[in-house]
Amino acid sequence: MEHIRYARNRRDFLTQCFCGLGALGYGSLLAQEKRLSPLAPKPSHFAPQAKAIIFLFQAGGPSHLETFDPKPLLNKLHGEKRPATFGNVEYQNVNVNSRLLGTKRTFARYGKSGMEISDLLPHQAQIADELCVIRSMHGDMVVHSAAQYQLMSGRVIPGFPSMGSWMAYGLGTESDSLPAYVVMPDPNGAPEAGQPMYTNGFLPAAYQPALFRAGSRPVLNLELPKGITMPRRRKTVDFIRQLNEANLLGEDPEFSARISAYDTAFKMQTDAPELFDVSNEPQETRDLYGVGQPNTDDYGRRCLLARRLVEKGVRFVCVVAGGGGADTEWDAHTDIEKNHTRMAALTDQPTAALVKDLKRRGLLDSTIVMWGGEFGRSPESERGNGRDHHNTGFTMWLAGGGFQGGTTYGATDDIGLKATVDPVHFRDLHATILHQMGLSQDQLSVLHQGRRERLTEVHGEILKKMIRS
Questions:
Q1: In the 8-state DSSP scheme, what is residue 100?
Q2: pLDDT tens-digit profile of 433-459?
Q3: How far apart are CA 55 and CA 66, in angstroms?
Q4: Contact 98/126 with Cβ under 8 angstroms?
């Protein structure tokens, strides 16, 4: 038998090396890549239908009664006390003296599906056949901060990882020069829950969000300083890494994340400056988003940038509409018409443009677009013609990513008080989007303080009726 076979040519030599020393070297390279990049792409638990998510977070709580959930009986009962047959819910400000408040909005049917949408959102009405509207959302909290925590992380208190961090942890990113998870805040300020609702919680710091700035320059210092060449900047970054690694003792996820951040920043200087310059988009595309128009320029730029980010492999993008207080959020305590007309004027056109643009570029099937806030608004009035916070029945919608467009799921009662048909809790929404991304809500878990923690907290129902077969 042939026990030893000497290499007869270079091909034999390379083949044998690969099975020996070559395999060791290859394994070392893989280990180094894993060590240096915790955000390297990871396999999903099963075949995904989507690979990225854009969450259009409407902070403050848009009213389902003025947008996607028509209630003729509410208008008929305008000015009356709520009938006892509808039961009771807890509010912040609505009390026994409050009266039902009809809407001044008119609803019509749009698209081949005949979906009912109000005249408050004429641009989103144009994409009716792309929308899967959930009319039966509900959560556990009626105050902004706790409800926002639950929407983002599945918990009503801070300290737990957000949706974006879970996605980055489970799947990594397809981009080696951009963050895996990006948040684009509203220029008016932060919503009530603040930055903690977006964070990585107890997950390693590598999965924290990159918070971009508002305005035309979302990331500063992308240009090289005057007189500095790219090779010199590369040497500087390498030297900083060597100094940091010399002081790295054992496992230190926080410190390792800071080291990695220098490399990401350098790659953004080399690969990403043109990404943030929307002026290189065709004029027709900028007009579609409303870039350059007084009302829509800011949100349009951010929605356009969100498309460009997922196009480059970013996993999760959160575009925030609303912040800094009730007057600059969907938080219509005093005047529902004034508040919602203003917010719709800022966001409706860019929102619809994003879905249209993704579709025409062939990206909608692989990208989930999600729209909604932490709760809705009450059927009863507050302070005359305003509506209070309302968590027992409200509306969100999804588009793309394998969701069935042109459909409505669930329903509230005849005055929009409670979710009565196929109620959808936040954990059900989380379980469903994880499923579409190829992630099991049970497998995507981390042992934290003796308990297996997951985005859905316990177990959410996957809403299969909303998914294309």
A1: B
A2: 999 999 999 999 999 999 999 999 999
A3: 21
A4: no
